[in-house]
Amino acid sequence: MGKNISKEELILQTAMQQFIEKGRHGAKMQEIADKAGINKALLHYYYRSKEKLYAKIFEFLIWNNVSEVFKLFEEDISFTEFIRKFIYSYTDLLNKNPKIPMFLLRELSEGGNTVKAVLKNLVDSKKFSVEKPLTIINTAMQKGEMVQMDPKQFIATLVGSCLFFFIAEPIFATLFIDESSFNRDAFIEKRKEAIYQTILYGVIPRGEA
Amino acid sequence: MGKNISKEELILQTAMQQFIEKGRHGAKMQEIADKAGINKALLHYYYRSKEKLYAKIFEFLIWNNVSEVFKLFEEDISFTEFIRKFIYSYTDLLNKNPKIPMFLLRELSEGGNTVKAVLKNLVDSKKFSVEKPLTIINTAMQKGEMVQMDPKQFIATLVGSCLFFFIAEPIFATLFIDESSFNRDAFIEKRKEAIYQTILYGVIPRGEA
DNA sequence: AATAAGTTTAACCAAAAGGTTAAAAGAAAT
DNA sequence: ATTTCTTTTAACCTTTTGGTTAAACTTATT
Question: Architecture of domain B58-203 in CATH?
Answer without folding.
Answer: Orthogonal Bundle (1.10)
